[in-house]
Design brief:
Elements (H helix, E strand, L loop, with lengths): L12 H11 L7 H6 L4 H5 L3 H6 L5 H23 L1
GO molecular function, one term: kinase activity
Keywords: Kinase, Transferase
Protein name: Connector enhancer of kinase suppressor of ras 2
Length: 83
């Protein structure tokens, strides 16, 4: 079985914005904060709750949604490195 290789670390801020838009509609208002702060794939993979507060994301539920999705991306990246 061949897996598609997605190099998240090479994502541009625009790729990250598209990813964020696709997570959940309630997160769309944060897209501009990510773009304004030039959050690219490398930054995304290293995001913490403190970083999210710096990006004006204060709702715990929204922070959890983003952090869980980032963790899934990290797992995807580590799985693709194995293959």
């Amino acid at each position: 079985m061949e897996m598609a290789y997605v190099n998240v670390a090479e994502w541009t801020p625009e790729h990250v914005a598209e990813w964020l838009r696709g997570l959940e509609y309630s997160l769309v208002p944060y897209v501009q904060f990510f773009l304004n702060n030039k959050i690219d794939g490398c930054h995304l993979l290293n995001l913490t709750a403190d970083d999210l507060e710096d990006l004006h994301i204060f709702k715990i539920g929204h922070q959890l949604l983003i952090l869980e999705a980032v963790e899934l991306l990290r797992q995807l990246v580590s799985m693709t490195l194995i293959y």
